[in-house]
Write a structure and sequence with these properties.
This protein is α/β, with parallel strands linked by helices and about 425 residues long. The protein folds into 3 domains: about 170 residues, MoaB/Mog-like domain (Molybdenum Cofactor Biosythetic Enzyme, Chain A), CATH 3.40.980; about 80 residues, Alpha-Beta Plaits (2-Layer Sandwich), CATH 3.30.70; about 150 residues, Maf protein. About 40% of the residues lie in helices and about 25% in strands. The chain has 16 helices and 17 strands. A 6-stranded mixed β-sheet has the order 2-1-3-8-7-6, with helices on both faces. Strands 14-13-15-16-17 form a 5-stranded mixed β-sheet, sandwiched between helices. Strands 10-11-9-12 form a 4-stranded antiparallel β-sheet. α12 links the parallel β13 and β14. The protein is elongated. The mean pLDDT is about 95.
């Protein structure tokens, strides 16, 4: 079954906001076993909406549209859909009551523009919006289901989960599809593919492997569908166990999760406190660590030692060490670990010092060179990396690498 996703709004086309709806919806549909064949953004203009529907209806099974359903005069999607599918706009009493309760709970009166939100096309099945005032609308034509939903994410998402997906399951014969994700760290995609080539070639025909890379991390997604799904648990266990024997040191999770979350769980489990001493990453590691709820249980703080003076005064890095070896050196990041653990009174720390660019590089120390250290006051592991890409990418790669190294340190995998 093929799915097309359409986002409506000039604010997307001019770059005023990012289209996060399409990505979220695509993940939901893929999780159902449906094939997303297209995502497109169009303006809230009747001709654009009509021409898009003309192209998709009869050629795709499901069209999911978001946006253009607000109460203001520039939102024309509802009127256009009513005209396109035939009939007129009528007040739906169930939708009106939902809107009335929405405002009552907030101590506000229902005004005429809000009441008009209860008008829906005669040809649709309305989908009540429990988190806003714009209802969703379910249409069917020429074998294609068209669902129009509000563009506000916190209104659209529960509508998809609570109404659209259950409706699709009731109406369609969706083939069973099951995913298993293995999270790897520290190996580029091409090298990883070579390391597991024989394992991949031995996968059964009903199991497919996808590589989903991002800086420092590669997700391996195994998918089984149809009759194979009935024995998915056994197949996943067998294949992931074989993969663990090949690249176990590089696997940090057997589910789709974040490295900073996994690291936090290990720190909490081991009752180990953490600090960071960051130069080129500028506090990005601390930002990632503290993005995890409950991180205060193990994270104590960070020193952003961007200048040599701060490294010396706040982390007690010897000025002669900096002068002799340079700020971007093994000796300096090792001292930064020891200083962070001592000053912030933590069990372990991470430290970075490098040249993020685009300026500041030399032949000896080019842009992208980063020294990373992890460990405690007595046992520090440090390593030099040469990252590629622009400044933000260097910072991201260094941050991910530092967290991955600390996770390995805590598991006793570093020498």
């Amino acid at each position: 079954m093929e799915v097309s996703i359409v986002t409506i709004g000039d604010e997307i086309l001019i770059g005023q906001i990012n289209d996060t709806n399409s990505t979220w919806i695509a993940k939901r549909m893929t999780g159902l076993g449906l094939h997303v064949c297209e995502t497109v953004s169009i303006s809230d203009h009747p001709d654009q909406i009509r021409s898009t529907l003309d192209r998709l209806i009869g050629n795709t099974d499901l069209v999911l549209m978001t946006g253009g359903l607000g109460p203001t005069k520039d939102d024309l999607t509802k009127e256009t859909l009513s005209s396109y599918f035939g009939g007129k706009l009528v007040i739906n009493e169930e939708v009106l009551e939902t809107i009335r309760k929405f405002f009552q709970l907030r101590g506000r009166n229902l005004i005429e523009s809000n009441r008009r939100q209860a008008e829906v096309p005669e040809a649709c099945r309305p989908l009540p919006n429990l988190h806003g005032t714009a209802p969703g609308m379910w249409f069917e034509k020429a074998g294609t289901i068209v669902v129009s939903m509000p563009g506000v994410p916190y209104e659209m998402k529960p509508m998809v989960d609570d109404q659209v997906i259950p409706g699709l399951k009731d109406q369609l014969n969706i083939p069973k599809l099951i995913h298993k994700t293995i999270m790897t760290h520290g190996v580029p995609e091409s090298y990883l593919a070579e390391m597991i080539e024989e394992w991949e070639e031995a996968l059964p025909e009903c199991m497919k492997l996808a590589y989903l890379p991002r800086p420092g991390i590669v997700r391996l997604r195994l998918t089984v569908r149809g009759k194979c799904a009935e024995e998915a648990e056994y197949l996943f266990f067998e294949k992931t166990e074989a993969l663990r024997k090949r690249i176990g040191d590089h696997i940090f999770a057997y589910e789709d999760t974040l490295l900073e979350k996994v690291l936090g769980e290990v720190l909490k489990q081991k009752k180990v406190s953490l600090s960071t001493a960051e130069s080129c990453t500028g506090g990005n590691i601390a930002r990632l660590i503290t993005s995890v709820p409950g991180s205060s249980a193990y994270f104590k703080g960070s020193v952003i030692a961007y200048s040599d003076q701060v490294k010396a005064h706040l982390l007690d890095v010897d000025a002669e060490t900096i002068s002799k070896n340079g700020a971007v050196s093994q000796e300096v990041v090792t001292s930064m670990i020891q200083g962070a653990c001592a000053k912030l009174n933590t069990d372990v720390a991470m430290a970075t010092s490098g040249i993020a660019g685009p300026d500041g590089g030399t032949d000896e120390k080019p842009v992208g060179l980063v020294w990373i250290a992890v460990g405690d006051r007595e046992n520090v592991f440090s390593k030099k990396f040469q990252f590629g890409g622009h400044r933000e990418l260097v910072i991201e790669q260094a941050s991910i690498m530092a967290m991955g190294l600390l996770l390995k340190h805590l598991k006793g995998l570093l020498n």
